[in-house]
Amino acid sequence: MGSTSAASLISLAVLLPFLLLVAASSAGLPNCPTSCGDVNSVPYPFGIGAGCYHSPGFNLTCDRTRDPPRLLLGDGGVFHVLNISLANATMRAARIGGINITSLDGLRGAVDGRAAWRGLGGDGGPYALSDGSNELLIVRCCDVLAQLTAGAGETGSGNVTISGCASFCPGTASGRALLSLSDGRCTGVGCCQMPISIGRASYDVQYRRLDVSRPPEHDPAGLPLVLIAEQGWLRQQAASTRGSPLPVNLDETPVPVLLGWAIGSAPLGQDGTLLDNSTCSGNAAPGRSACKSRHSSCRDFATAVRSGYVCDCQQGYAGNPYLAKGCQDVNECERPEDYGCFGECINQPGTFQCRCPPGTQGNHTQRNGCAVSPLPPASSSSTGLSIGIGVSSGVVLILLALLIVVLTRKHKHRRAKKLRERFFQQNRGQLLQQLVAQRADIAERMIIPLEELEKATNNFDKARELGGGGHGTVYKGILSDLHVVAIKRSKIAVKREIDEFINEVAILSQINHRNVVKLFGCCLETEVPLLVYEFIPNGTLYDHLHVIGPRSLSWQDRLRIAIEMARAIAYLHSAVSVPIIHRDIKSTNVLLDDTLTSKVADFGASRHIPVDRSGITTKVQGTIGYLDPTYYYTRRLTEKSDVYSFGVILVELLTRKKPFSYMSLEDEGLVAHFATLLTKGSLTDILDLQVSEEGGKEVEEVAALAATCITLTGEDRPTMRQIEMALESIQASGGHVAAIQKSEEDIIERNLPTTQGARNNQEVTRIYSLEDEFMLSARYPR
C-alpha cells in the first residue's frame, strides 16, 4: 500500500463524521451480525457465519466462550481480530497466546536452530503481513542472531533474508540481567528490533548463538523470545509497564500484527507479472468484480510477492463499496466550512455548489467574504427592461464562455502537438530513425507515449525512484500490459547526453541476450528523454558483493556470474551485426535478478565498431579503477578495453576489494597489488577469505586468467570468447582447465606472472608503475 498524501488525510478527517453515521447501515449484508465483543463493526466483504462473507478467507468467527467474546480470523483461527479498515485494506489482529514464533527450546545447548511464523494457513489466502508496518523483535536474550527468511511455499521463497538483528550483552553476570525497557527502544543490548519491509503470509526464522563458549543454561536472560509484532507495540508495552521488565509468561499478552488484504489475492507469476484474476481488468466483466456500488471504483493492489485488487468509494461518496448501496453521497453542506465554503452551500450528488447568497457579492471561499451589493433603487417601469437585458446578457455570456472553452482546448491541443514535435526533434528522433532504418518495425514498437509512462510511475513520484546511474534517474513502473519496468530519465538535456541516450536505444534495440538487460521502448515527447527497460529487482553485483560482514556471494555464484558476463560481452563483441564495445564494464553496471542471474546494463557510453576496423579514436569515457590504461593514454578504443575492465571485475570477485578506492600499504592500486602478489606467490594475502575456503584449485585458474586480462598491452590480452571458454572449462573441470586454443596458451605463457620465470617482480613493477600513476592521478568524465 503506498503512502497516504496530505490531501487524502484531510479528506478522511472531513469525512469521518459522515462515515460514523453510515457505518451501521453499510457494514454488512442484511440479517448478518456486524459486531462481536470489542469489535463494533464487521464490514462486508468480511462476515460472521455462512452466507455473510464474500469468499473463502473473509469468514470470521465470534468466539462467545470468552467474556467478552472475541472475533477470530477464519473458522476459529489463531488470530484475534482487533479492527478492520476498508479504506486502507488492512486488518489489525493479535496472535492468541501472544507468542508469534514456534518453540525455541531447540536453542538450548545448540549453536544453530530454526523456527517458523505461521497462522494464516496455506499461502495466506487474501492476507499477508502489511509491507513496512511490522517488525522483528528479539527480547530477553544475549548473544543471539536471528534472521527472517521467506516461508516455505511462498513465491520467491528460499533462503532469502528479509530482516534480521542481533542482541548482545555485557560480559558480567549483572550486565546480563533481564531487559528493563525504559523507553521501549531496543539498541542491540539485551534486545533488538528491525522493520520487516516485505510482507508475506509466513516466515522461517534461523537463529544462531554468537557466544558458544558460555553454556546457555547459565545465561540469566534465559532462552530468547523472538516475536513478529506491529511497529510501536514494544514501546506501548514498555509504557504500560512503566519500564519494568516484560512479563515472563506471554500467554495472556496478545502480540498484534498489521495484515494487508485484497480481493482475488494471488502470488505473482514466475516472471513477476500479475495474474488476470487478481486485477481490476481481469474482473471487469459484469458480476465478477467485488465492487458492487455504482459509485465505487476498482484499484489494483500489488506487493513484492502478491497481487489483488480493492474497492473505493468515488470522490464525494463514502461508505462500503462492496455493497450495492454502500457508497452514499456525502452532504458537504452539513459542514460547509470544512470544504472551504463560507457562502450559500447547495449539496449535489457526489459534489456541492457554493456561492454568495442572493443580494451579496464577493469571495465565497473566505470567511465574511460575501458583502451586501450596493444596488440603486429601481422603478417599476424599468424592472421589465432590466430583466430582459439581464437575460440577453446572460445568454450572450454563456455562448461567449463556450466559445472561449472550445478555442482554448483547440489551442492547447495544437500547442501540445507542436511541443511534442519540437521535443522529438530536440531529442534526436531523426537520429534514432536513422540508426534503426533497416528495422522500421523496431522503431515503431519502441515509441511509448508519455501518458503511458506518467500513469506507470504515478507522475514520476519520488517514492518510485530506484536510484541514479551515470546517465540519469531510474523509476519503477507498471505498464498497461502489466509489465514491471524500470524507466530511466536523463539528467541533462544537452546534445551530447541526448546523443548517448539515443545511442543506448539503438544498441539495445538490436540486442537479444538473456544476460543483457532487455529494452521495452523509449519516449521522446518530453524535454528530457526517457528509456524503458526490464525491471531487475535484486540490485547490482556491487551491492551483493560489497556487503558488511565476512561472507558475501558464494564462490560458485561468483564464478557463474563471471561466466554469464563473459557470454554477454562476447556476444556484444562478435555475435551482433556491428560489434559493440560497452566501454563502461563495472560491477555497478551488472544487475542481478531474483535467481542472481546477471544482466549487463547501462549502454550510454557504448560504441559501434565497424567490422572492417580494429578500433576507433574517441573521447575517453569510463570509470576510475576499471578503465583500460592503454585506452586512456592513446584514446584508441578496441574490444580489448572491455577485456581489461572485465579482468578488473575478476579481481574484484576474487578479493572483494573496491577497484576505485583500494590502496595497499605500498601505495599500489588494486590491479597493481594483485599482480605483484600473484608474481610473488602470495596471492592468499589479498584473496577474500570466503573465496579461499570455497574455491580450491579454481581460484588459481581464475586468478591466472585475470592476470592475462589486465596486462598493459592490449594485443596480449585474450578475446572475450577465449575468456568465456576458459571460464566454462574451469567450472566444468573443477579447477583443472585444459588449453582452449594455442593462441590462448601463448598469451598465458607470455603474460602470467610466475614465481620462477625470468620475468619476475621487477618487470611486473615496471609494467604497473604506469597503472599506479593512472589510478592515482587520472580525472575524466563519470
Q: Would you write up a description of this structure?
A:
- The chain is an alpha+beta fold and 782 residues long.
- A hairpin with a 4-residue loop joins strand 4 (79-85) and strand 5 (90-95).
- Helix 4 (429-435) packs parallel to helix 7, helix 9 (555-574) runs antiparallel to helix 11 and helix 11 runs antiparallel to helix 14.
- The protein has a five-stranded antiparallel beta sheet, with helices on both faces. It has a four-stranded antiparallel beta sheet with strand order 4-5-14-7, with no helix packed on it. It has a four-stranded antiparallel beta sheet with strand order 6-12-9-10, with no helix packed on it.
- The longest helix is centred in the middle third of the chain and has 47 residues, at 380-426.
- The protein contains 17 helices and 34 strands.
Helical fraction equals 25-40%
Structural class: alpha+beta
Please state how the strands of the largest beta sheet are arranged side by side: 24-25-26-28-27
Count of runs of 4 or more consecutive helical residues = 17
User: What form results from the Cα inertia axes?
Assistant: flat
Chain-averaged pLDDT = 78
